[in-house]
């Protein structure tokens, strides 16, 4: 098994996927290295990418206030891709990061062909809505 597939197996979002599914994910995503301080997304802008953090940490801010620090195995960027709206938060690499990046089309392909991944993304999305807007989550 090549290094990228081994790395994908270690990502909790993809845990439990078979080799065939992991190979599909491998074809859909790009692996990129980003330096500390690199802005991944800016609140209010159009979002076209979904990120899975392989290594490193990412600071997430909303309205200029830190709302989360995400690390290895966690992901971000799904909200704007799911609802086609603007980014709900800004995200910046706190440390050097290795990321898996899926564009809008690839993200949708992944969710369509793999219900397990789609469910995990939706569960994470619901948890984030509850955390960010507890008074409006029903």
Textual characterization of the structure:
The termini are far apart. This protein has a single domain (3-131), classed as Jelly Rolls. With 138 residues, it is an alpha+beta fold. The chain has helices at residues 3-9, 19-28, 78-83, 104-113, 115-132, and strands at residues 30-34, 39-41, 49-55, 58-62, 65-70, 75-76, 90-93, 97-103. It has five helices and eight strands; from the N terminus they run H-H-E-E-E-E-E-E-H-E-E-H-H. The strands form two sheets. It has a four-stranded antiparallel sheet with strand order 1-8-3-6. It has a four-stranded antiparallel sheet with strand order 2-7-4-5, with no helix packed on it.
The major β-sheet equals: 4 strands, antiparallel
Shape category: globular
- Written as H for each helix and E for each strand, in order along the chain, the element string is HHEEEEEEHEEHH
CATH superfamily assignment?
A: Jelly Rolls
Which keywords apply here?
single chain; 138 residues; alpha+beta; 4-stranded antiparallel β-sheet; 5 helices; 8 strands; globular
